[in-house]
Design a protein that fits this description.
The chain is α/β, with parallel strands linked by helices and 294 residues long. It has 12 helices and 10 strands.
Length: 294
């Protein structure tokens, strides 16, 4: 089990090498600390509800981080004590009352469908297909499309106070950003239907029991503990991790024979790396391995 690091080489490296990535918006911030890329949804006054700026930020940051050789793990989180409240219901209501379409919501039905499809691919599909492990760190509520985005990550860390809720049934919506697909993979069809149709509030502990949350961390110091957890994960063999994610994503839609045929070249590639040789030597020498992504 990966766990938080004490202050050590990885944390020192992170402090020394922190740098920001321009997302073109204040609604979503991005930085790289050591070998961890950090994306922060930054609308705390709206509990990090989604906006055109958030979508623009994801579209700008994810391709840059995917190509960055320094980034071994990507952490997605939210500012101000929440992860993401999903759609901005207040803005929706204001638009309905005024009759003025919100930004990105103009045009006919087909135009709006095309726009939503594009945003979903820029966020949820891009997170799912991100070459390295993606960790969603939930300091608080993840609701609606915010929960969908958290589920698009490979792993989820949650503060004890965090609440997960599908929420769409509560606002007369059917769901977007892939939540129905991801949740079905995690909890099964019947439970996913229950969670969508009845929209209960799920605590972090309940989410862990259901398989929606991987690790629950204390509320106090959650942001730092989650970052340290990601640094620890980034300290593991990065080439092997990328190939593992590729294998696991493929397993969602291929038969066993195809999965076996694809696992073989990935295994040979991984065991041909300097990282594998280092791990074998470290095992024999009874010391921690130092992985360099080579």
């Amino acid at each position: 089990m990966v766990g938080p690091l004490a202050d050590g080489p990885l944390q020192c490296q992170a402090d020394q090498m922190a740098r920001t990535i321009d997302t073109g918006t204040d609604d979503l911030l991005a930085r790289v600390e050591g070998n961890v890329g950090v994306i922060t949804i930054n609308r705390p006054e709206r509990r990090n509800a989604l906006s055109e700026g958030v979508y623009t930020g994801f579209a700008a940051a994810l391709p840059v981080m995917a190509e960055d050789p320094q980034v071994r793990v990507l952490m997605v989180t939210g500012a101000g004590g929440a992860f993401c409240a999903g759609g901005d219901v207040k803005a929706m209501n204001d638009s309905h009352q005024s009759g003025v379409p919100r930004a990105g919501k103009t045009g006919g039905i087909e135009d709006r469908v095309a726009g939503l499809r594009a945003r979903q691919r820029q966020v949820s599909l891009a997170l799912h297909q991100f070459p390295n492990p993606v960790v969603a760190a939930l300091p608080g509520a993840a609701a609606g499309a915010g929960l969908s985005i958290a589920l698009a990550a490979d792993l989820r860390l949650a503060a004890e106070r965090a609440v997960l809720v599908t929420a769409f049934a509560n606002v007369g919506a059917s769901g977007d950003f892939g939540g129905t697909w991801f949740l079905t993979q995690l909890v099964g069809t019947a439970k996913a239907k229950e969670l969508y149709l009845t929209s209960p509030r799920i605590t972090a502990a309940e989410g862990k029991d259901l398989g929606m949350v991987n690790v629950v961390l204390p509320d106090e110091g959650f942001d730092q503990a989650a970052l340290e957890w990601c640094h620890d994960l980034a300290g593991r063999a990065p080439i092997a991790a990328r190939l593992m994610k590729e294998n696991l994503n493929r397993a969602l839609h291929v038969d066993l024979a195809t999965a076996l045929d694809a696992e073989a070249p990935n295994m040979v590639r991984a065991m041909s790396t300097e990282d594998h040789k280092e791990a074998a030597a470290a095992f024999v020498e009874k010391r921690p391995p130092v992985f360099r992504g080579e």
